[in-house]
Amino acid sequence: MDIRQIEEAVLSFYRSGTQQQEDTHQWLQKIQESQQAWSFCWQLMQLDRPSEVQFFGAITLHSKLTKHWAEVPKEAHGEFKQKLLESIVMFGNGPKIVLSQLCISLSVFIVHMLEHPTVIEEVTGMFLNEQLGALSKTCQLEILMSVLEGIPDEADSVHTQIPRAMVREELNKKAGFATGTVINYLSEKLNAGRLEESEMTVLINATKCLATWLKYGNVRLDECDTMVQVLLKLIHYCYWKEPKEDGCLSQEDSDLAETAVKVLVKVMSSQNCNGYKYSATVIRFMVLFLDVLGPILDVEWKENNENENLAFVIYTLFLTTLECYSSVIFAGILTDNEELTKVYGRTVDLLVKCTDKPGTYPVDESCSTLAMEFWYMLQDEVFSMPNDDHKTKCWDAIKPVYAHILKVLIRKSQLPNDKALPKWNSDDLETFRCYRQDIGDTLLSCHDVLNDLMLDVLSEALDESILYLNYDPQNTDSWPLLEATIHAYCSIAQKIEYAEYPQIVKLLKVLNDIPYDKYSDKLLGMALETAGAYSDWISDNPKYLPSAIELLVKGLSSTQASQATLGLKDLTSECQKEMAPFALPLLDACRAALQGGHLKNSEMIRLMYTVGNIMSVISYENIIQYLDVMVSPCFAELQMTVQNQDKSDAAKSRIILRLEMISKLFSSLNTRKPSEKDGDDLSATVGRGQPTAAAAAPPQPQPVQPILLILEKTMGLLKTLCEQWIHDESVIETLCKALQQALTNLMDDIKPLLNDMCCLILHIFANKCAPSAVEMAGNFILIFYNDPQSRDSMKQLFNAILEYNFGQMQQYDEQQKLSDVADLIETFYMFNTRITKKMPVCYGEVQADCTRLVEYAMKAMMLPETGPIKKSVGFLTVFIKESRNCPRMMSAVAGQGENILRNTFLCLGGYTPRAHVDVFADIFLALNYKYPSDYVRWIKVLEKPNFPTFFVSQADKEQFVKKVLKEKVNRRLVQEHVRKFAAQCRNAVEWEIDFRTSS
């Protein structure tokens, strides 16, 4: 192969445009795989060649060593090693990128040579004894550490003739030697008194090397004393070796110290399952950590810290140790051992300071978020104690700590004010948002410990924040502390029970008294969110409802209207019965907000849900009046759009907005009393097999449901709208969802409009099958099929759904593109599952083509999409179980039983991702339960040679059949059999076998 051509290609790759790079890259990859690469890689690594070419030669050598070592004859191994060492010497002084690749290549070579028991010792001795005389001792040590570091990493990816188990075993044996070599080197350097700057790279590589070897060798924690002490001495030296004018470590010192701490983290996490076994060692190490690293954290306990990364990894070390050995450390709460008690106390104090790190996260500090998990872990450890006396003692011991942490968290959760905000970027703000969520979760842990005491602490914090706010009334930037205190109240709202706590009463009063116009809108936003969060408590204490309403209504006209609409939604849902005395003024406020033009679309939609909740508790006359002034504008705009035949994007957006607003109103407006709605649960009504409300004796005369009045007046408009936008999926889906909400609320009260609704659905089916239309049609059938007056309409509707979907699936099946209508298939079989389960009589009376239905279900379950797989398998399972009660269904199962099993086995063999094979257990159970004798005959399809794959043996198939034939009800056991069989079919590897190409 022409070396000049390769060199030109490499240079072209690094210096040409993107498209040419891609072509060149493919060619270079191809020649790297060739046999000749063993020769030309050395030629490319000549000192007179460009560094890019040298680097390509080095990575080619590494690639060949990793993947094609078998191509090198055994008798050539010695010569190869010599050439590799000579190349390392040649590039010992650079370029670094070439030397680095050569070091990794030597690591790979050593992995291949592990069958020689002393290979690592020999190579190590060569460098330690400076046998590569052309290089300085420092350079040789740097190379050695890189090589040792690379051995464990390369062992995981190298293609070697040595069995993987043997590689791991040999590395386990050599772990002690490798780590010992590094520790000896570090000790010698530290004992020398001063670390030269020129040696820092070697020291960093050596320390990294320890971390890579710790995953091998099953190193016992009690054998790590020397390693831990040397690493701590290294950290201590780097940090304290000389005064720092600006307090900032040099980059080399910082990297070395941080790397050493990370190795300690590896040490402490290597034996986390043997906490009690090493309890004395853990305590000894914790004392060392506290003595050596604690003072560093004390110095770094400041904001705008120049050594923040070092502080971060040190705190990580303490938290990792606690996570792995929590019971050992937490034993210090109860023990009489003074040393252990002191370790526990010092550790908790250190983590309190971590949580209370000066500065604002994440712009001034990055450590405070680390300890959040600890506060949950500590309370969980205490609450899980089996001994009640111990639990009580520990509980009392940690309460003061959590009371202090509560105040810390309030202070740390303060939002930046307008003066501080310029130094925050969007990423900082998002990180802080997540941090506040973590604080909220931690506050819940605080409440679990403090209970009612938490409200006392929060009440004190509220007083302090108000005092701070009022200290300088002219200061408009003093609001963050009050906002953070309110946030703390909001975070624990779910924990507050029904009692009339004076602290909550005071909070609600404060929320109404704050002069929000003087401060940032964020303060009002948090107040509104908190008012909504306490809706459940207010429902038990309704005398405080007016103040909550007053605050939320105030928010409707602000920039925080989103929080106001959320709060009103929660309040009117939780306190609906108590809302009647305040309903009309609140409706007026909602109307004003809707007409004000300042609300976003999502806020308007949400507010309509509130409107529906409120209208449900006012007089019928007032409902009609408010419908006219609040809902009519929505339909008036729809009417205007229809009349103008406006098909613009702006018109479409307005139509969808108005339909979504109407949908939300329909979902919440219901004047029926709860007792009258008891029979309205669809699943309960149909599931009992009793006549629906449509066929029952009518109750006492009542006014027509408001939703029905709206629909009666606007059905013509909705039909026209549907006709004009029939080919726009988003508009039709939104319309169907609105009508579905009406049906869900009205149930059988919708009967006067049944024919109109069915015609609308049929019109949609004639053009485009919307999933929401299918769901709505299913509900109509389940509610009205047993009503003699409606049965013919329901049959027609059922037939239309079947025929439309059959037509669509046939069309796409012929094009072999069933995946293109995966959503339609999923919806269709979800619909059929409901009908099969609750109204199977439909299939017999409508004379449905059940065989076709089953055939397409079999095809659907072989698609790659999750939805069709699960829904079609669910349908087949229910269909099989119900088929004995319907001759037409039974005939379909009897005729397709063997095919159902054949396709099921193909799915297990590779069509279906292994993550989803569990669902097929239901098919085996259903057939075994309902068709036991046929099942035995059908399952013989598995006897076909190499079916479903050639990986599974005849004995494995017989064993599987025996197991599944035995089980008729134990779903979990059949799932286990199915999972195991699927793995056998795929040779225990998740390969997707394409049966479509085989016959």
What attributes characterize this protein structure?
999 residues, mainly alpha, 69% helix, globular
Distance between the termini: 44 Å
| Number of DSSP strand runs | 0
Mean pLDDT: 89
Tell me the Rg in angstroms.
37 Å
**What does the main sheet amount to?**
none
Percent of residues in helical segments? 55-70%
By secondary-structure content and strand pairing, the structural class works out as mainly alpha
> What portion of residues belong to β-strands?
under 5%
SS element count, helices: 46
Shape: globular
Q: Show unreliable segments.
A: 674-681, 683-696, 989-999
Keywords: Nucleus, Transport
Subunit structure: Interacts with UBC9, RAN, RBM8A, eIF-1A and PAX6.
Pfam families: IBN_N, Importin_rep, Importin_rep_3, TPR_TNPO3_IPO13_4th
GO cellular component, one term: nucleus
Explained architecture:
- Helices cover 69% and strands 0% of the residues.
- With 999 residues, it is mostly helical.
- Helix 25 (545-556) packs antiparallel against helix 26 (561-574) and helix 26 (561-574) packs parallel to helix 28 (601-615).
- It is globular.
- Belongs to the importin beta family.
- Its main location: nucleus.
